[in-house]
Amino acid sequence: MESDNSSMNSKATNKSLMIAFAVMIVAVLVIAIVGFMLLKPEKELFQGQADATTLRISGKLMGRVTDIYVKEGDKVRAGDTLAHIHSSLADAQLQQAMAVQQSAASQSRKVDKGARAQIIASARSLWEQAKTAEEITRKTYERMQNLYAQGVISEQKRDEAKAAHDAAVAATAAAKAQYDMALEGAQAEDKASAAAMVDAATGSVNQVQALLEDQYLIAPCDGEITDIYPEVSELVAPGAPIMTILRPDDMWIAFNLREELISNMGMGQQVKVRIPALADTVVEAKVFYIKDKGSYAVWSATKANGKYDSRTFEVKLRPLQKVNGLRPGMSVLLQED
Predict the structure, then answer these.
(1) Rounded to the nearest 5 degrees, what angle is found at the Cα of 308, between the Cα atoms of 303 and 313?
(2) pLDDT averages per 10-residue partition of the chain, 337 residues
(3) Which residues, other chains included, contact 73 with Cβ-Cβ below 8 Å and sequence gap of 6+?
(4) All domains of the chain, ordered by start, with CATH?
(5) Residue 287, Cβ neighbours under 10 Å: how many?
(6) What Cα–Cα distance (Å) separates residue 55 from each residue in 71, 87, 224, 248, 298?
(7) Most exposed among 58, 135, 175, 188, judged by the fewest C-beta atoms under 10 Å?
């Protein structure tokens, strides 16, 4: 009897254990299914960088930096004087060009004024002398002609007198022409040539003055001085950068994304980004630039089948509102939707 009771108790215990084990298995399965249903893949996070427009300030003048009026970090306004570059060579060129200009202007005034009174008086005197000589040779020729007609002199003497008279007439005409030229002054061609020389000299002066005007470098816009390259007293070449101005009013954010990740990043699309350096500030930004990075930025597949080479695109976004404290170089995070 005791043996039957013991057997029955053992069976009951085994049955209870099996039921508990089955319940536990069912519970684990239910928890696993619910967890699997609730489990979502973690969204991918993309990191970009803030950037801004920068302008390199340079000059056209080769010379020595004599003064720098700003420091790195200074705020400047458009029109502020930034630096002074001095060139003794340009100063010498200006003096030379101005001397040539003055000489050309003096020559032009002389040509426009015409011959001096002394030259005109001298030309008139020569003309008068020529007319007197012509009159004398005319009278001599007439007497020789009469004597020749009377048979007193030979034909040779008469011809010599005529030749002298003809030469005197020609000399009178030449003296009259010189006198008329002195009265009229320079020819139109001479005046045009003198005026052209003045214009050329003036152009040379303006060219050097334009270079010298660039000896003072002026800020082209409002901004912040981020870099100053030369030191005072250093020589700089034309076009060499002197300093850099950052335009904080023209900030943007750049991301480099594979092409399959930009389906929701079309032109004009608005997205939310996060800036860790500014206490995870969330900012609304708008896409304004999308361009592939070229073949050097192609992501290559590691498998021959089932994968393809993916190009990398640069995507730029501009914050819709000004973000205080945002600086170029700060990390910006974009989370996949």
Answers:
(1) 130
(2) 55 68 74 64 78 89 87 93 79 64 64 57 75 81 81 77 79 75 57 65 65 78 92 87 91 88 81 91 92 66 58 90 90 80
(3) 224, 225, 226
(4) 45-53+247-335 (2.40.30.170), 101-206 (1.10.287.470)
(5) 20
(6) 16, 24, 10, 11, 31
(7) 188
CA 259 centroid distance within chain: 35
Instruction: State how far the Cα of 121 lies from the Cα of 18, in Å rounded to an integer.
Output: 148
Residue 249's region, left for phi above 0, alpha for psi from -120 to 50, else beta, is: alpha
Measuring CA to CA, which residue among 229, 223, 269 is closest to residue 249?
A: 223
Q: Which residues pair with 316 in a beta bridge?
A: 254, 289
Region label for 220, one of left (φ > 0), alpha (ψ between -120 and 50) or beta (otherwise): alpha
The pLDDT assigned to 186 comes to: 46
Residues 44, 320: contact at Cβ < 8 Å? no
For residue 3, what pLDDT is reported? Answer: 52
| Token pair of 241 as six digits | 């950068």
pLDDT of residue 259: 83
Distance (Å, rounded) from C-alpha 115 to C-alpha 183? 7
